[in-house]
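Record filed here:
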Amino acid sequence: MKKTFLFLLAIIGSLISYAGNPIDKISIKKNTAAVVSEDGGNKLSIGLSVGTTIPLQNFGDKTNNPDTTHFNGYANTGIHFNATFGYKFSKYVGAMVMAGGSINSFNTTSFTAANGGFGGATTSAKSHYVGQYLMGPYLSVPIGNKFSVEVRALVGLVTSSYPKIIESTSGSFGTYSYGFSSQTKINSAAAFGFSAGVGVKYMVADHFGMTLNAAYAGSNMGYKGYTSTTTTTPFTGTTTSNVTDNTTKRTMSIGMINITAGVAYCF
């Protein structure tokens, strides 16, 4: 009993000494900070990113496609942007919603060369726009108390607006003038798509971070129908013909590598 009493006194004395030692308190605070996640325990995050998008598959192909059920996009490297909203269920796992888009200019030089054109024709077109409205899980792995690595796997709706293609030529012969122009607009399309990627986040403050992400996005788009207007100006006058087709369907595989940098607000 005496030994037990002395042992309890020794424990009580140690606790009193520990409670009164400020150095030990500082040490506890440091150790506690070391196990806090990189985002300070925040569960919600809003992100904005912008960067480049590299077209792949039929979307980026700049050659003629002889298959009448498929066609190519003649898309150049462009701009990608997106906004994300994420919620973490635990320290490592969360769900994310992403809305974004890609703008890729149309390579008219390659289109004219691939399709033969017609005597002295010039080709003009605006840009492709591909929209992404995706959601899915993500994994966040903290590295220290500032950095984290995020892996995303998102699925959802992808939309595509193929640019109107205008081909034209003109000239004169003596006092007569002649010309030819063709405008073709393919109807917009929507299909299932996905995005899989990895990124890093660095917290510069308790609620603000900087991000860098790379992702591959894909879809197989089916375009149904088109509208074509042809105007001919021969020596005797001008004639115009219109063709509207709402049944013919052609597909184009879309692949994109999106590399973006941005900011995130966590709360």
